[in-house]
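A quick aside before the break. I want you to see a complete sequence-to-structure record at least once, exactly as it would be stored in a machine-readable document. Don't worry about memorizing anything.
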Amino acid sequence: MKTSPITSLLLLAIWPTTVVVQAFASSSSHKTLLSPPKSFLQKHHHQQLNELHTTTTTTTSLNLFGASTATKSVASAVTNLIPRGGAASAIAEKVSSLASTPNGSFNLALGVLAACTAVLKISNKANADKDEEKVVKDPKVKSLQMRFLMVFWLLRMADWLQGPYFYQVYASKTFGAATGNAMTWVSRLFLTGFASTALFGPLVGRLCDTYGRKAGTLVFSLLYSLGAMSTKSNVLGVLLAGRVMGGIGTSLLFSAPEAWLVGDAARNGLEGSLGETFGLAYAGDSIVAILAGQMAGLAAGTRGPSGPFELSVGFLILGGLLAAFTWKENVAGNVVSGDEEAGKDGDDDAGSKPTIRDAVKVVKEDPKIMLVGSIQSLFEAAMYIFVLNWPPAVSKAVSAYFAKFATDSSAAIATPYGT
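That is the input. The structure line, written in tokens, reads:
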């Protein structure tokens, strides 16, 4: 049975991932990882299948990683796929070097997976282009998407940059006479931000509808920047104030930009493009999150745990400037399409703008809204509990496993939280 190039890439992608998973699952050197499929090995080095089964249960002499017997077995099998020679030796040495550090291991897995994803994406696009005719996009839609997506991705980049090092930056603080361990105070600061979002969220949405979604986006950039800069302080009051501003900013981030998009699309009669635009926004957001993690790791390595927060300020300023100069303001009750007069509609609706009481009434009348909100709240709660407990847990696992590669046993092993 022959193996296609895409299958080969996928199998290569799975290999470093299984090594990392095995590393964190156990520090034992006697467990066996899954070896690559028979046909995959057979194609590249033409060994008998029964020989492969025999050798996978014994200790190989190749010490690519300097790790457990199981890791050596997989490393040996994959290394045999590379043709012999100077280039092969250089590649093996590079892989060995990468896999001996936390950053290297994660980046190795990320690089292989990214390459496989790119190949699959290009392959799918090539097949799709054969069957579909190109549709010319309306210039107005292009303009709207460009103005929104650039701002949206910059602001999301700022948010993603701060996430990985949230625990680390607050755990590194000393609060003078304040009592309690690091987890206690990090939890309290975490809770302060969520309480701020819950308390001010409804008011913030109302103010955006009244005074403008563009204005709300600019206020988000300002508040989130102040919150990020507060991480430079060791004063507990300043850190708490920063979390309050960050909580209000979070409410604005998840309401103002998207509300602006909907309003501007309605004003220009482009409501039909909203589905595509939101799809592009959140597909791109995934790529932004991956890039932000790598950038956060570099910033933290250079400037300490507050480095990613400092870097995020630059993206917030750039996003705010783009919004200020490329967006036109829109407010609730003042959005019209076609040749209607916006001023007239705004006057008619000025006294009948929806209130929080009206919103509560709508939720009561439609149980599906409450159900969706409850599901989202439970999901977010589980995610943030994980986010709070993940850094200390993964740091302990990384230190325990990669200590065997360290030349200095007393040296601290940095955890690449951004990955």
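Two observations worth writing down. Confidence is low (pLDDT under 50) at residues 1-13, 15-74, 335-351. The two ends are 37 Å apart (CA to CA). We'll return to this after the break.
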